[in-house]
Amino acid sequence: MQLNKLLSPVEISEIIGCGDKEITGVTADSRQVRDGYMFVAVPGVSVDGHAYIHKAQESGASVVVCERLPEQISSSVTYVVVPSSAIALGYIASEWWGNPSRELHLVGVTGTNGKTTTATLIYEMARLLGYKAGLLSTVCNYVESTPYHTDHTTPDPLTINEMLRKMADAGCDYCAMEVSSHAAHQHRIAGLHFAGGIFTNLTRDHLDYHKTVEAYLNAKKSFFDHLPATAFALTNADDKVGEVMLQNTEASRHTYSLRSEADFTGRIVEQRLDGTLLSLNGVEVETMFTGKFNAYNLTAVYGAGILLGWERDSVLRAISALVPVAGRFQAFHSPKGVTAIVDYAHTPDAVVNVLQAIREVIGQNGEVITVVGAGGNRDKGKRPIMAREAAARSQRVILTSDNPRFEEPEDILADMEEGLDEEARTRTLHITDRRQAIRTAVALARPGTVILIAGKGHEDYQEVKGVKHHFDDREEVKSAFSENN
Asked: Does residue 211 have a pLDDT over 90?
């Protein structure tokens, strides 16, 4: 592709060198540079791409996009100086892949909790209605029914646009995409054309990265700030910052709610551990989801469907056919009458939501055993809060290892225990080995007991000292049920 065309949507401060070149590839990773490539030097959290410009040049880069020039300039290289390399990369990636987001109805979902479920259900609903669709999510990326493994909630711009190109070439009409706060802050979604955006909620998370709740909020809000006038912005009116998300958007503004009047209202009529009778804008629909948090997710999905122009009755029928996302309030039942719920809840608010959903079904006197840990090398402040919230809503709590990463599991559990008072500690076990913790919970359970296994959900690994070891909560609870049969 010609350099001039590739740079056409980019804000440029200065160009040094020939502006008429044929580019053979684009990358922000100096290790991937080949002859004729464009290398985009992006400042990162731990690594600054500017430190690798010399390596990219040695590997054959013919163009370097950067925020500041290197000390030594090569006469064979064109230097494109830009205000923000990260933003430039987003627009360049879109241009390189032929702006695929403009060939799709792309809906982004942001918020602390509910992103995966909401995005996945929009994708599933589109397919149930007969449309071809794609998905970019934490669990897995999909082009129609073909899965593609994912390591990040929101990938880098080149990967995003490559996936969107696959979707467009496969004839997809729609794509649902999780938009993480990291991705918004790092401009990984720059250059994408969205048909709509959804805000789920905002609670404490990722403060190890954003440092303050305000910065975390602003990262999510920036997604809505950049939506075009042709898009819709759908926000949770019941969240204290729901309306804040819409303050500066040019998109059409819409709300959903379970508590007050809104464009799209949901009401829980009746619920069980395996489903909820939900009223959506006054029409009752039987769903296979449980919990107030899922009622919010489904109301958002309903609103998105209507705003995308889908026929109401078709949307309602599709919602009744949707099934829970893997590892999100996923229920398993033992022959002895014990139920285990595996859920990705890894923030205090998410733990509260899941436990409240269980309590709403089994009542305050039903027995709940919660198995919970916290990830290593992440926000330490939420650890004692998670333990305290779990203990407040469970008869027993088993603190265990999650993904310790490069921390010692015992140190993480010690941080969690700081949130427990003396009474709660008498009801709490400390079992570092997660497999043993799950087996202990099953052994302690009686008929009617509900076990919540929180934190990992769909993940099929534990990350220890930089190595991922196979571990799946769903497999472990099924095995424990079998042994206790």
From this structure: no
Question: CB atoms < 10 A from the CB of 344, how many?
Answer: 25
Name the residue among 110, 421, 62 with its Cα closest to residue 239: 110
Three-state secondary structure call for residue 176: strand
The average pLDDT across 301-315 equals 98
Query: Do β-strands 133-136 and 37-40 pair in parallel, antiparallel, or remain unpaired?
Result: unpaired
Between CA 244 and CA 237 the distance in angstroms is 10
What is the structure's pLDDT at 258?
98
Q: Which pLDDT does position 245 carry in this prediction? A: 95
Structure tokens given for 7: 């740079």
Least confident of 132-136, 149-153, 353-357, 450-454: 149-153
Contact call for residues 398 and 441 (beta carbons, < 8 A): yes
Q: How many residues does the chain have?
A: 485
Assigned token pair, 269: 């009529």
Helix H or strand E segment including 280 = strand 275-280
The answer to whether residue 212 scores a pLDDT higher than 80 is no
Q: Enter the tokens of residue 347.
A: 């923030």
The answer to whether residues 354 and 293 touch, using CB atoms and an 8 Å cutoff, is yes
Q: CA-CA distance, 3 to 26, in Å (whole number)?
A: 11
Q: Sort residue 107 into left (φ over 0), alpha (ψ -120 to 50) or beta.
A: beta
pLDDT per position as a tens digit, 215-225: 778 888 999 99
Q: How confident is the model at residue 210 (pLDDT cuts 50, 70, 90)?
A: very low
Residue 284 has pLDDT above 60, yes or no: yes
Among positive and negative, which fits the CA dihedral 388, 394, 400, 406? negative
148 three-state secondary structure:
strand
Q: What percent of the chain has a predicted confidence (pLDDT) above 90? A: 87
Which residues face 56 on adjacent strands? none
Task: Please name every residue paired with 463 in a beta bridge, in sequence order, or none if there are none.
Answer: 468
Would you state the structure tokens that stand for residue 296, as one six-digit string? 């919010």
DSSP 12-24: -SEEES-S--B--
The overall average pLDDT reported for the chain is: 94
Average pLDDT of the segment spanning 247-263: 97
Whole-angstrom distance, CA of residue 282 vs CA of residue 259: 13
Residues facing residue 232 across a β-bridge: 196, 252
Pairing between β-strand 461-464 and β-strand 467-470 as defined by DSSP bridges: antiparallel
52 secondary structure, DSSP code = G
Q: Would you say 45 and 209 are in contact if contact means Cβ atoms under 8 Å apart?
A: yes
CA separation for the pair 328, 28 (Å, rounded) = 34
* Cα angle 373, 151, 300; round to 5: 75
